[in-house]
Target: 6-phosphogluconolactonase
Amino acid sequence: MATVHQPPNAPILVSFPDADALVVSLSAFLVKAQKDSIDKKGRFTIALSGGSLPKMLRGLIGNPAVKWNKWQVFYVDERVVSLDHPDSNHRACMEHLFSKVSIPEGNIHHIDTSLLDDLEELSDAYEKDLIREFAQKDSARFPVFDVILLGMGPDGHTASLFPGHELLLEEDRWVAYVNDSPKPPPKRITFTYPVINHAARIVFVAAGKEKATTLRSVLDVPEEGLPSARVKPVYPGQLYWFVDDAAAANVAYPRTPFKL
Model:
């Protein structure tokens, strides 16, 4: 049988027995990425999603290897609500992680809530925040995050990029707004694919049997209509899937043993 050669940045699928084991290994992965980035350039840039992801970062709490003062945190997407609103991704990350660690408040880049009534101004302001962090220090056309953490919905959406939406074709803007999200709340801002795909490491985190069918559609026979399947890092960036065995139950795609 002929050997199938995958490209050097083909997705790496790592599956764990349960969510707790996933949490431990994800924490170790992030600490290693942090060390590599700080050693190289003195800072660690990371973008987080909402949903169930903040709870999966609990392995970082109390970890002495985490250099919180070196972290610069952005949100991959955000709901256009106040920061204390139950739908806010920032609120979820504060509750489950940042309120329990010593990260400086100024290192967490949230939306400007004075602009909630103007989606275009809001997304432009967040893009300018990215420019301030990256354009002065990096020369790339798009920001190059050390890590972008993503989740995946049962419909295959990721960030606030939904099936069939015009933003799937956006090639220029760093941050765009959504005023017709199929999931409430309808108004959101989101990173676009050029930003996501230029990250050094993109990590999807998916747990639970409800993700099994969609994960198979993303990895085994990728459906271009699924936003999660359109995440394709620009070489030498690397895409990882950290999943539990329940989410990977229907997937034939080869697993890779976890190692740092």
User: Anything to note?
Assistant: The first helix runs from residue 19 to 41. The chain has one domain: 12-204+221-244.
